[in-house]
Amino acid sequence: MLSQQLAVDRVFHALGDPTRRAIVEKLSAGPISVSRLAKPLDMTLAAVVQHLQVLEASGLVQTEKVGRVRTCRIEPKGFSVAERWINERRSLWERRFDRLGELLGESDRK
Amino acid sequence: MAQSSVTHSTFIIERNYAVPPEQVFAAWADPAQKRRWFADGDHAEIEEHRLDFRVGGIEKTRRMITAGPFKGTPLTNDSVYLDIVGHERIIFAYTMTLGEKRISSSQATVEFLPNGKGTILAFTEQGAFFEGADGPEMREQGWKSLIGQLDKVFAH
C-alpha cells in the first residue's frame, strides 16, 4: 500500500504543473519527438526534458531514444493510479455501509 | 498563475437494508450509532467523534491509523450538514485530512428510499481530490510532512 500511496502522490505532483499538463495534453494526440514537443512550449530543451523526467517517474509518460531522436508517448497504465485512489474512497464508504448493515441487523433481532 | 491539481469525481453507492427508513436514518442522526459504523473501522483507533446533527451543524471525526505504512498518522474528517429532511435526505460537505495534508473536499447526498418493508440507501459523493491545490510550496510542505511521518514510522 505504501508504494501505491507514493505512486499516487507522484502522479498528482506530476499533474500539478501546468506545463506538464500541457505536455500530457499534447501527447494524448499521439507520440512526438522531444524537440517537436519543446517548440510550441517556448522553453529550453533542457527544461522540457526535466518535465518529461518527472512525468516518466510518475509513470504517466514513456520516452525512448532511437538513434539521436528521443520520442515520448503517453503511458496509459499511469492514469489508472489516480482512478485507483478514487476507488479507494468508494471502498471506504462500502465498508462503512457494510458495518451499518451489521448495526441495523442487530437492532432487527431485538 | 496558481498551480493546482484537482481531480473531480462522482460515484454512487446503493444499498438495501431490511429495516424501515426511520431506522436507517436514525443510524446517521444518533451520535452513538453513527460512531459505530462511520468512525469505527479496521486499522484505526477513534480519537474523537462528535456530531451536531442539524443544518449548519458540524461533525468531527479523528482517527489514528494503527497499522500499515501510515501507522501513527491521524486521519480527520470534518463535515458540515447542508440539508436534512427527516427520514428522507441528508446532504453534507466534508474534507479529509491525512496528517497535516488536506487531501479532498466532497459533497455527499444520502437518500432514504422506502422499498417495501425495507430501505434503499442511495449515496452520491461528488468529490474534489487534490494534492497541492494551495500552490507548490504548500504541496511540498504536505509532501515533506508525509515523508516526516513515514520517517518516524520506519525509525522503529
Topology overview:
The complex is a heterodimer of chains A (110) and B (156).
Chain A: H1 2-15, H2 18-27, E1 32-33, H3 34-41, H4 45-57, E2 61-66, E3 69-74, H5 79-108
Antiparallel strand pairs in A: 1-3, 2-3
Chain B: E1 6-17, H1 21-29, H2 31-39, E2 44-51, E3 58-65, E4 74-85, E5 89-98, E6 101-115, E7 118-130, H3 136-154
Antiparallel strand pairs in B: 1-7, 2-3, 3-4, 4-5, 5-6, 6-7
Helix pairs in contact in B: 1-2
Describe the protein.
Chain A is α+β, with helices and mostly antiparallel strands and about 110 residues long. Chain A has one domain: Winged helix-like DNA-binding domain superfamily/Winged helix DNA-binding domain (Arc Repressor Mutant, subunit A, Orthogonal Bundle), CATH 1.10.10. Chain A is built from 5 helices and 3 strands, in the order H-H-E-H-H-E-E-H. Chain A has helices at about 1-15, 20-25, 35-40, 45-55, 80-110, and strands at about 30-35, 60-65, 70-75. In chain A, strands 1-3-2 form a 3-stranded antiparallel sheet. In chain A, a hairpin with a 2-residue loop joins strand 2 and strand 3 (about 70-75). Chain A is rod-shaped, with a radius of gyration of 21 Å. The two termini of chain A are about 40 Å apart. The mean pLDDT of chain A is about 80. Chain B is α+β, with helices and mostly antiparallel strands. Chain B has a single domain, classed as START domain (Alpha-D-Glucose-1,6-Bisphosphate, Chain A, domain 4). Chain B has helices at about 20-30, 30-40, 135-155; strands at about 5-15, 45-50, 60-65, 75-85, 90-100, 100-115, 120-130. A 7-stranded antiparallel sheet of chain B has the order 1-7-6-5-4-3-2. In chain B, helix 1 packs across helix 2 (about 30-40). Chain B is globular. Chain B starts with 5 loop residues before the first strand and ends with a helix. The interface of A and B includes residues 2, 9, 15, 16 and 89 of A.
